[in-house]
Amino acid sequence: MFNTRITKSVAGTALVAGTAGLATLLSFGTANASSVDDQFVATLQQQGISVSNPQAAIKVGHKVCVALGEGTKPSAISAQLVKDNPGMSKQNSLVFVVDSVQSYCPQYMHHNADGTVTISAA
């Protein structure tokens, strides 16, 4: 896999409703995805996350960034994803958060000298 450590530098707030959209990943096909969106979905699938509704996954990926921008801790986002999506493991929720940040809001990703990556909210 990959070595990713998720931390947060400022006090977080509760993740706003919206990650529930990830629960709908099990039904629809793609429509008009951009190359960034296509890469995001492909990366999720390569890392073992089943995506039957790419548009919903993309929407939730953007909501991860909104939540980080509002100061929500990455761990709280991960926990909310697990809560809202029965069958999603904590590991997969962390992968989803990391992939969302890499694709849509890399300003929250910090590469450390020891090779680890830290994700922090605004």
In short:
The chain is mainly α and 122 residues long.
What does this structure look like?
By secondary structure, the protein is mainly alpha-helical. It has one domain. Helices cover 44% and strands 5% of the residues. The chain is built from four helices and two strands, in the order ααααββ. It has helices at 35-46, 54-69, 74-84, 90-104; strands at 109-111, 117-119. A two-stranded antiparallel sheet has the order 1-2. A hairpin with a 5-residue loop joins strand 1 (109-111) and strand 2. Helix 3 packs across helix 4. The longest helix is centred in the middle third of the chain and has 16 residues, at 54-69. The relative contact order is 0.25.
Write the SSE topology.
Elements lengths: L34 H12 L7 H16 L4 H11 L5 H15 L4 E3 L5 E3 L3
Keywords: Signal
Organism: Mycobacterium angelicum
Protein name: DUF732 domain-containing protein
- Rg, rounded, reads 13 Å
Calculate the mean pLDDT score and round it.
Answer: 78
Q: Largest sheet at a glance?
A: 2 strands, antiparallel
How big a fraction of the residues is strand? under 5%
The secondary structure category is: mainly alpha
Strand arrangement across the biggest beta sheet: 1-2
Total count of helical runs of at least 4 residues: 4
SSE arrangement, N to C: HHHHEE
Flag low-confidence runs. 1-31
The total number of structural domains is 1
Share of helix, binned: 40-55%
**What is the straight-line distance between the termini?**
27 Å
Shape: globular
The beta-strand count equals 2
Keywords: Signal
Organism: Mycobacterium angelicum
Pfam family, one: DUF732
Protein name: DUF732 domain-containing protein
